[in-house]
Specification:
alpha/beta; five-stranded mixed beta sheet; Purple Acid Phosphatase, chain A, domain 2
Length: 171
């Protein structure tokens, strides 16, 4: 886990570059493939349905973690998790929540550069106006015929670009 100074530098845009691992819907499962693809990121965002404190502990071994509560995160360990967070990353503002359908207002007007959500288990990278929209899909147990996936966001010189990463090749 990074030091407080490293986390502050990342938030304030030191170097104006960062690589963010984006995860959602782990439902208590920490896949070795997930951990392997997260190695080397500067920050991890977990968009809820974490499923247990052990997931956050494993992720914190790799990089600082910002996480929000999902609809399955009801146990005592999740009591301090917020429903949404604003996370500064390399000079940009990311809005993190579990279910994008609960997003209120216009994210571009609110000054957000990226919206990160989960819940649907369906991986999505797109744009709403100038705002990057990312749902990494589910890194946990497979649901229906959806891929098991995560996302990676690279911020360079004030621009955020995302890519989806398949964790298993079987679908």
């Amino acid at each position: 886990m990074g030091t407080k100074a490293e986390e502050r530098d990342l938030a304030e845009g030191a170097g104006m570059a960062a690589t963010v691992g984006v995860v959602s819907d782990t439902h208590g499962l920490v896949r070795p493939e997930l951990l392997a693809h997260l190695r080397g990121v500067d920050l991890i965002l977990h968009a809820g349905d974490i499923g247990g404190i052990e997931v956050l502990e494993a992720l914190r071994e790799i990089a600082p973690v910002h996480a929000v509560r999902g609809n399955v995160d009801r146990a005592e360990w999740a009591a301090d998790l917020q429903g949404n967070l604003i996370v500064p990353v390399a000079g940009l503002r990311f809005f993190l929540l579990h279910d994008i359908h609960k997003l209120v207002g216009d994210p571009e007007r609110a000054g957000f550069d990226a919206i990160v959500s989960g819940h649907s288990h369906t991986p999505v990278v797109g744009k709403r106006g100038r705002v990057l929209i990312v749902n990494p899909g589910s890194a946990g147990p497979r649901r229906f015929h959806l891929p098991v996936s995560m996302a990676r966001i690279r911020v360079r010189d004030g621009v955020a670009e995302a890519e989806l990463v398949r964790l298993l090749d079987d679908v």
